[in-house]
Amino acid sequence: MSHRTEKQKMLAGELYIADCPELAADNRRVSEWMARYNASIAVPPAQRLALLKEMLGAVGNHVNIRPPFHCDYGYNIRVGDGVFMNFNCIILDVVQVTIGDNTQIGPGVQILTADHPRDPALRAQMLEFGRPIVIGKNVWIGGGALIMPGVTIGDDALIGAGSVVTKDVPAGATAMGNPARIRG
User: Greatest CA span in the chain, whole angstroms?
Assistant: First the structure.
């Protein structure tokens, strides 16, 4: 039986310890990249797009992510064509985050795949896990919203500013509040 690394466990959505040498090296690499990316606010969008393609798992055409931008690893983030993310967005990408074409994300939005065991004994062992997030095409997420682990937001949905999205949002729906609820 082969021994799985903490990174392999993380990518599989299993319990893992984030404070291991392999993930620490990945984190240093993305931290160095974020320092360069976040200093690029005055450069043309095409140059920032090239920087995004260095670190993110997949980046479509005409993507504009305004610095500052922060993420855990970068390689688990897949962004479609025409995606716009405003200032101060955070993606904790311990597992895959997919953002569909033409989605617009307001300032200060947090997309959080990282989760922690509810059992205090497991938390005391510094264990965590991730649940993937999928954001469909042509979604609008208002400023300051929190997208929690495991959520799927359907195409053409709208998420109100400041909402905390804890459950899936169907295509075309409007969800807002804390916790976010579907509105008519």
Answer: 53
In this structure, whether the domain defined by 6-183 belongs to CATH 2.40.50.140 is answered with no
Do the bridges between strand 64-65 and strand 84-85 make them parallel or antiparallel, or are there none, so unpaired? parallel
Whether this model's pTM surpasses 0.90: yes
Question: CA 177, CA 59: separation in Å to the nearest integer?
Answer: 30
Q: Which tokens go with 12?
A: 């599989």
Give the single-character DSSP code of 182.
E
Long-range residue pairs from 152-155, CB within 8 A, at least 24 positions apart, any chain: 155/100
Q: What is the pLDDT of residues 98-146, one digit of tens each?
A: 999 999 999 999 999 999 999 999 999 999 999 999 999 999 999 999 9
Cis peptide leading into residue 149 (ω within 30°): no
User: Per the residue annotation, which of 3, 62, 70, 116 is the catalytic one?
Assistant: 116
Which candidate, 159, 165, 130, 118, places its Cα nearest to that of 142?
A: 159
Query: Is 116 known to be catalytic?
Result: yes
Residue ranges covered by each domain of the chain:
6-183
